[in-house]
Design a protein that fits this description.
Layout (H helix, E strand, L loop, with lengths): L1 E7 L4 E6 L2 H9 L13 E3 L30 H18 L1 E4 L2 H9 L8 E3 L3 H9 L19
Parallel strand pairs: 4-5
Antiparallel strand pairs: 1-2, 1-3
Length: 151
Amino acid sequence: MKVLNLGCAQSHVFEGWFGSESDFQGQLERGLLECPMCGDKTVRKLPSAPRLNLSGQSDSAPAPAPVAAGTADPRAGELQAEYLRALREVMARTEDVGERFASEARRMHHGEVEPRQIRGRASVAEAVELIEEGIGVLPLPDLPAVKDTLQ
């Protein structure tokens, strides 16, 4: 198994697991790779430090977190991971009502149904209308990475 540090054109950093270098190259050439944060298919391999298992020596120093190329903040990888964890937590604790989001939010606001934590899709105009009606909404990006379980 070959674990590679990868990045996209938007400077997001992520890992990819491949059977071999040729497996990686084949998937890259066929356009099968994409950034889990933004869906960008402009994926490139980033430098990574090899891990050597030498008998009798211990590795007491933690490995540094990968840093996105061209990113000013050296904690970019950590922040990206924390952001994804928070979004996955929202997904786990809310009910997906899909396209019915605006109508369900209104029904709860007006006491027609029991209040609960929901998520779904609404147009920008619908979200603005909900806010103007005094209904609290929090727009979240539609990221590929929060749709599936990540390893």
